[in-house]
Amino acid sequence: MAILYKKVKRLSDPTDKVSVRKAYPVITYKYGSAATLGEFAKEIGSNSGVSEGEAISVLKDFRTLLRKTLLSGRSVNIEGLGFFFLSAQSKGVEKAEEFTNQDITGLRICFRANNDIRLHTGTSTRSDGLKLKDVDRINEPDEIEAGNGEGEGEDPSV
Q: Strand ranges (DSSP E) for the chain?
């Protein structure tokens, strides 16, 4: 399995406009396809003994109940998966007293993964076959990609 990333330049300290611009990795999904509900249901069905149709139904019901629960003002903590919660967006106002409901421009569903599924770049992840691939060098052979030591290509230390 390979995790694709691209390099972007941004200020090393966003609050300081004269700070140095450095390259940082950003995970990209442009070159792959998103997993579908059907794929998840098929995999769950083959692993758990329930039919694919039953798995799809349960996943759709979960999605509906998650949205309903979040919109009722509660967060959702699914043991072994993670924590879902809402975040409000606004442009902000100078004084807190002046803030009203109309200043909220949107809501986002946020997710914080539980430690059980959180990815770490330590040795256990490497032994699981994790590879990081620079999308700017995706068509180059792996032996060239892996070895210049300047932070490009696959990073053997991750």
A: 2-11, 21-27, 76-78, 82-90, 104-113, 131-134
User: Is the separation of the CB atoms in 70 and 76 below 8 Å?
Assistant: yes
Distance of alpha carbon 154 from alpha carbon 133, whole angstroms: 5
Nearest one of 146, 148, 145, 138 to 4, comparing CA atoms: 138
- DSSP 8-state class, residue 34: -
Strands (E) across 32-92 are located at 76-78, 82-90
Contact 88, 70 (CB under 8 A): no
Half-sphere exposure of 64 (CA within 13 A, CB side): 6
Asked if 64 contacts 71 with a C-beta cutoff of 8 angstroms, the reply is no
What's the pLDDT band for 89 if we cut at 50, 70, 90? very high
- Three-state SS for 89? strand
Domain boundaries, the chain: 1-32, 35-68, 75-114
Residue 145 in this model has a pLDDT that exceeds 50: no
Strand segments, DSSP code E, in 31-130 are 76-78, 82-90, 104-113
